[in-house]
Amino acid sequence: MAYKISDECIACGACAEGCPVGAISEADGKYVIDADACIDCGACAGACPVGAPQAE
Asked: Can you give the pTM of this predicted structure?
């Protein structure tokens, strides 16, 4: 299952930088994950300082 970014997101961009497939983008001051592009690797969760990306 794809990851999803929770409301804890502080819009720092660390998750987007860590995503190997470029599935994360900024939208309205918050980052979102394209579920179709996400490969469920968890790199975003490991890069996030507040643990906002979570497996669905």
From this structure: 0.90
